[in-house]
Design brief:
19 strands, four-stranded mixed β-sheet, Uridine Diphospho-n-acetylenolpyruvylglucosamine Reductase, domain 2, single chain, Uridine Diphospho-n-acetylenolpyruvylglucosamine Reductase, domain 1, alpha+beta, Uridine Diphospho-n-acetylenolpyruvylglucosamine Reductase, domain 3
Amino acid sequence: MTFPDLTPEITALMPELRGRLSANEPLAPYTWFRVGGPAQLLYMPADEADLAYFLPRLPRRIPATVIGLGSNVIVRDGGVEGVVIRLSAKGFGEIAIEEGSRLRVGAAIPDVKAARAAAEAGIDGLAFYRGIPGAIGGALRMNAGAHGGETKDTLIEARGVDREGNIRIFSNADMGYSYRHCSAPEDIIFTQALFQGRPGDPEAILAEMDRITQAREASQPIKEKTGGSTFKNPGGHKAWQLIDAAGCRGLVVGDAEVSKMHCNFLINRGRASAADIENLGETVRRRVFERSGVELQWEIKRIGAA
């Protein structure tokens, strides 16, 4: 799939743009599944000011899609029309320790790096981020959580840019958090977060992070081409138990497989297409519903054209 090149139009509309533009950029290397087609145009902002310059000048007819570290996304094989925006650590990778056991981090910072920065500064309460793949921007958008903690438990405020180029600040209450859900406007691209922790002993916090690491390695296929937890836990149920009970552990479609280690994880065994992975997920959903009457909801975001 090759899209018409948007670069000449964008550069003509935005002569002062400093970020990187790349037409028909393959997106598979940017995702953990390593599948999917290209972005019609990949834009990597130089910094927040560059992003705020870009968004209001982007014609409304051109869609904008944000990806982070690609740990929780399936890019479909037909690629993504319009502009795909990816924040880099160079422009959105700040980490600052503030008074009162607070941590300020850029949206491109991996969750694990934020957890380690907090631990080394003696800030407790953020160790759960060690168990979450992806970056802070994605954690803000989906109220990411693991090992007894969620983003909503520690967030003071999130900062972002809307489609009009306005810098906006959202309090914890403004985010409208619930399980794996955020009610902030969809057009907001988060750029920064401020977290509240509590005083703690660095060695004890790091030991807790090591425990989380060991638990993940023992129970999740983290060394495979996967996208993390595939489905949300329905109320009163655990997704993996429903999937297992429906006989889906080890199920294969094409070269995609339901993990035998943790059956709420899908795996690209090496040559899977995005369609293989998504079709496998839909097969799992159908079988679970047929057996239990429970409808699983995707936790992994799916973008682009089939």
